[in-house]
Amino acid sequence: MDSIGRYGDSPFLYPIYGLGGLPEAFSRLCAIHGGTYMLNTNVDEILYENDKVVGIRSGDQTAKAPMVICDPSYALGKTKELTKVIRAICLLNHPIPHTNNAQSIQIILPAKQMNKKTDTYISMVSYSHLICAQGFYVAIVSATVETETPEQEIQPALDLLGDILDMFVQVSTTHEAADASLSESGLWITSSYDATSHFESASEEIL
Asked: Which strands sit side by side in the sheet containing 52-58, from one edge to the other?
């Protein structure tokens, strides 16, 4: 109830200045509980003793830990490919048409409507969240790739956005841990972000 109306009509609380606000909040919470944030630090190696994780190495320094939680890019030799995801970041100078001039919105196009096996997602935020200049909007279209022509797959979603000033398209491969038993060693590999724009998959994995 506290979040309703705080930033427009949406019941969702968006981090001002974008998702970069989340690690900032986490670092403050981490510090309260005695954690240490290591900035500009590369992870060169995940360290093991007797097949158990004991920390990480960065250059000639080590950080000891009984558990390592990382995304697949830190442990590619221990992951397997899942699917491909296409994301189109679209810069607009207007809200998405027929959305009552919403300053933020999520639209889910059902798989059946799109003649696909998976849903297509549109997430739009704007200058009201301080993530772009005044009068601009950023819409992200994402979908799981099912054909050899991924850009054609998202064209119906792009058509909903109206005129697009500029667009940046990327197709990426998602990964997950190759073996669930890896967690027994203290290494927890999260799955890559899928096409969902409301973090449902990520939330379920955290839980």
From this structure: 45-49, 52-58, 61-64
The pLDDT score that the predictor gives to residue 73 is 93
Beta carbons of 77 and 177 less than 8 angstroms apart: no
Using one digit for the tens of pLDDT, what is the confidence trace for 15-66? 788 888 888 888 999 999 998 888 889 999 999 999 999 999 999 999 999 9
Provide the pLDDT for residue 39: 85
Q: Which two tokens stand for residue 188?
A: 């927890």
Task: Write out the E strands in the chain.
Answer: 45-49, 52-58, 61-64, 68-70, 79-92, 105-109, 120-126, 137-144, 166-177, 187-189
Distance CA 42, CA 57 (A): 8
Structure tokens at 100: 């009552």
Q: Which CATH number fits domain 21-81+176-206: 3.40.50.720, 3.90.226.10, 3.90.1300.10, 3.50.50.60?
A: 3.50.50.60
What long-range pairs does 54-60 form, CB within 8 A, spacing at least 24?
A: 54/186
